[in-house]
Design goal:
The protein is of the alpha+beta class. The chain has helices spanning about 10-20, 25-40, 45-65, 65-80, 80-90, 90-95, 190-195, 200-210, 255-260, 270-285, 290-295; strands at about 5-10, 110, 125-130, 140-145, 150-155, 165, 170-175, 215-220, 225-235, 235-240, 245-250, 320-330, 335-340, 350. The strands form two sheets. Strands 1-4-5-6-7-8-9-10 form an eight-stranded mixed sheet, sandwiched between helices. A six-stranded antiparallel sheet has the order 11-2-3-12-13-14, covered by helices on one side. Helix 3 (about 45-65) packs across helix 4 (about 65-80), helix 3 crosses helix 5 and helix 7 packs antiparallel against helix 8 (about 200-210).
C-alpha cells in the first residue's frame, strides 16, 4: 500500500485546481465514503450534509478567503460541486453539529521534546484512526506557497488541512473529542491549515484556537523544543504544555477544566490507549528515538482498539474504525516517516518537505 503523493503551487485557486485534477479519483472516494458515514452514523443524506456545510463554508471564507479560493479550485479540478468539497472539509462539524451521544475514536498523539528524547530531538507522532474505507482516498500533499510557509500534509483527498509539518519547523496533529455542546465554529480542517501556514508557534496556537471555536484537541510542536495542545468544546479553549518533555492525548478531555465539563466519552479504548502510551513513553524516557515511536505506534495492548487500531468485523460497517496511517515527524531532522494502514503491518517510509 502506498498513498498518492502530489505537489501544488501557484495562487490559492491554482493550487486547488492542480490538487483537484491530480486527485480526482481519490476525491470521488472521499465523497462516497463520507456519504456512507453521514448516513450510517447520523442518518444524514449527502444533500443535507451539503446544505449544513454552507454555514461552515461561509465561516471558512470569513476566516481566510484564500482557503475558500483553494476549495473552489479543488472542486473545479475534480469536477464536483463546491459544496461537496465544503462538506468534506467540514465533515467533523457536519457530523457533530448537534450534541452527539456517539463514541469518538480518532487518534493517539505523541509530542516529545527534550529532556524526553535522545540527543535533543523533537518528535511529533500519531496514529490516525477512522473508518478503514478512507485508506483509498488518503493523499500526501506538498504545498508550495509564495507568501506563507511550504508544508506537507497527509489527509483525505479534498481536504485543505491535515496532519503534517511546515518548513518553519511546526508540526500539527489532532484528536477527535465529544462535548456536551454542539460542534460548531470554524472547521477543524481550516484551523489545521492555518496552523500549517503559521511562521511561529504562538501564531499557530492563536490561529488554531480562533473564535468561534469547534470541538477537538489540536497540537502544535516546534523544532525549538516547545509544544502546545489545546482542547476546545465550542465555548472554551484550554491549553496544555508538555510535562518533562511529554505531551500525550487520545480521545477524551484531559485538561482539568474541560474534563469536569465534558467527561462524556465513555468508550474505554481512549482511556486504555492513554494509559498504555504513557507507560511506553515512560519506559524509554530520556532516550526516546524514532524507532521507539515506531514500536509504540504498533502496540496492541487492548486489541483490537489499541494504539494500533484494527477493524472489529463484529461492528456495524459504518463503525469499523482502524489505524489508516502512522506518522512520525522528526522536526530536528526535518523529515516525516509514514506507514500506510496499520503500522504493525507496513514499513515507515521517509519523506521530506
Amino acid at each position: 500500500m502506498k498513498y498518492k503523493e502530489i505537489t501544488v503551487s501557484g495562487t490559492p485557486y491554482e493550487r486547488g485546481l492542480t490538487y483537484g485534477k491530480l486527485c480526482k479519483d481519490e476525491i470521488g472516494v472521499s465523497i462516497k465514503v463520507y456519504q456512507m458515514l453521514f448516513d450510517g452514523l447520523k442518518n444524514l443524506a449527502w444533500e443535507d450534509a451539503r446544505r449544513i456545510s454552507e454555514k461552515y463554508l461561509s465561516l471558512t471564507r470569513d476566516f481566510e478567503p484564500d482557503y475558500y479560493e483553494e476549495m473552489r479550485g479543488i472542486a473545479e479540478g475534480a469536477g464536483v460541486d463546491l459544496l461537496d468539497i465544503a462538506a468534506l472539509n467540514a465533515r467533523t462539524e457536519v457530523m457533530f453539529s448537534q450534541v452527539s451521544k456517539d463514541e469518538v475514536n480518532e487518534c493517539t498523539t505523541i509530542s516529545l521534546v527534550p529532556p524526553a528524547t535522545k540527543d535533543g530531538h523533537v518528535i511529533a507522532a500519531q496514529n490516525w484512526d477512522f473508518h478503514a474505507y478512507l485508506r483509498d482516498c488518503i493523499v500526501i500533499v506538498h504545498v508550495k506557497q509564495e507568501d506563507k510557509p511550504d508544508f506537507v500534509m497527509v489527509a483525505e483527498a479534498g481536504m485543505i488541512g491535515g496532519i503534517g509539518m511546515n518548513d518553519r519547523g511546526i508540526a500539527v496533529m489532532l484528536n477527535a473529542l465529544r462535548a456536551e455542546v454542539a460542534c460548531e465554529g470554524i472547521p477543524l480542517r481550516a484551523r489545521m491549515r492555518a496552523m500549517l501556514d503559521a511562521e511561529i508557534l504562538s501564531d499557530a496556537y492563536v490561529r488554531g484556537s480562533h473564535a468561534p471555536v469547534s470541538v477537538a484537541n489540536l497540537i502544535a510542536t516546534h523544532k525549538d523544543g516547545v509544544a502546545i495542545a489545546f482542547e476546545m468544546d465550542s465555548r472554551t479553549v484550554e491549553p496544555m504544555i508538555p510535562e518533562d518533555g511529554v505531551l500525550l492525548h487520545t480521545n477524551h478531555y484531559i485538561g482539568p477544566k474541560m474534563y469536569m465539563k465534558n467527561d462524556v466519552n465513555h468508550m474505554g479504548s481512549s482511556y486504555i490507549r492513554l494509559q498504555r502510551v504513557r507507560t511506553l513513553v515512560k519506559e524509554c524516557h530520556g532516550n526516546i528515538t524514532v524507532d521507539d515511536i515506531k514500536r509504540i505506534l504498533s502496540d496492541h495492548a487492548g486489541y483490537p482498539h489499541s494504539i494500533c487500531d484494527h477493524e472489529n468485523l463484529k461492528d456495524p460497517v459504518a463503525k469499523r474504525d482502524a489505524t489508516n496511517f502512522g506518522i512520525i515527524m522528526d522536526l530536528t531532522d526535518n523529515c516525516i516517516y509514514l506507514a500506510p494502514g496499520n503500522p504493525c503491518e507496513n514499513e515507515f517510509e521517509k519523506y521530506y518537505i
